[in-house]
Design goal:
InterPro entries: HMP/HMP-P_kinase_dom, PM/HMP-P_kinase-1, Ribokinase-like. GO terms for molecular function: kinase activity. This is Bifunctional hydroxymethylpyrimidine kinase/phosphomethylpyrimidine kinase. Keywords: Kinase, Thiamine biosynthesis, Transferase. The protein is of the alpha/beta class and 264 residues long. The protein has a single domain (7-252), classed as 3-Layer(aba) Sandwich (UDP-N-acetylmuramoyl-L-alanine:D-glutamate ligase), CATH 3.40.1190.20. The chain is 35% helix and 21% strand. It has helices at 21-31, 59-72, 86-96, 123-130, 141-148, 158-166, 210-223, 228-244, and strands at 7-15, 35-47, 50-56, 77-80, 103-105, 136-137, 172-176, 184-189, 194-199. The chain is globular.
Length: 264
């Protein structure tokens, strides 16, 4: 008898360069043994040098994609990424609120090159509508500052940052410390339990797609039945390997290697 794999849905933007966004999400899901499905919220013109433009889809198209997948196929976990505008953030939050599956929110606001991917006026909707739906939210330090005003200058500030994000209602917060000096240390916190995940920092500039990849890996492991700390630990291990094997494409920043485990 054929076994049906766990099903994970990504709601995010398309990356024409293939390194981040929905493309990275689906590659990650395949690598981790789950069936990936997608709701395209925005389309980007993007390459190794940056984002040349993006176009959000109508809210009704996003909702229709979601209902089409969830009502027929079902999901064991959902990951959100680039949502671009207040109306899309509010639409997706409304769709996720009654869902019983775990939700991983990557609060994407800028690209690896510093290009904006979220309208400034959408931040309040992220705080008040989207974050309360999250099982896990995965902000980097720039996103923490945008959402809460908390400045993280070192690992000693990450607990306060996590508490500030938790105040908006997610169950867990993973504050990513990848932009700090030294080892790559991330803090997972639910208001009581504190888990640190540390890994070696690799001298590799080809790190496009790390945030999308990590969030998708967490969602995949949650869909496979792991609890949040174990899902984050497994996802951190996967993305660390992908960063180590990141490769050059084009004239700018190349992607992480989503298939690194297949190459030995």
């Amino acid at each position: 008898m054929v076994q049906i794999p766990a099903r994970v849905l990504t709601i995010a933007g398309s990356d024409s360069g293939g390194g981040a966004g929905i493309q990275a999400d689906l590659k990650t899901m395949l690598a981790l043994g789950v069936h990936g499905m997608s709701v395209v919220a925005a389309v980007t013109a993007q390459n190794s040098l940056g984002v040349q433009g993006y176009w959000e889809l109508p809210a009704e198209a996003v909702a229709a994609q979601f209902r089409s997948v969830v009502d027929d196929i079902g999901v064991q976990a959902v990951k959100t990424g680039m949502l671009a505008s207040p109306v899309l953030v509010e639409t997706v939050a409304g769709l996720l609120a009654p869902l019983r599956a775990p939700v991983v929110v990557d609060p994407v606001s800028v690209s690896k090159h510093g290009d904006p991917l979220l309208a400034e006026e959408a931040l309040d909707a992220v705080r008040t509508k989207l974050l309360p739906t999250a099982t896990v939210v995965t902000p980097n330090l720039f996103e923490v500052r945008q959402l809460t005003g908390v400045e993280v200058r070192g690992p000693q500030d990450m607990r306060a940052a996590a508490e500030a994000v938790l105040a908006y209602g997610p169950s867990w917060v993973l504050v990513k410390g990848g932009h700090l000096e030294g080892e790559a240390a991330d803090l997972l916190f639910d208001g009581t339990r504190e888990h640190w995940f540390r890994s070696e920092r690799y001298d590799n500039r080809h790190t496009h797609g790390t945030g999308c990849t990590l969030a998708s890996a967490i969602a995949s492991h949650l869909a496979l039945g792991r609890d949040v700390p174990r899902a984050v630990a497994a996802a951190k291990d996967y993305v660390t390997g992908a960063i180590r094997q990141g490769f050059p494409l084009g004239a700018g920043i190349g992607p992480v290697d989503h298939g690194w485990r297949f190459r030995g």
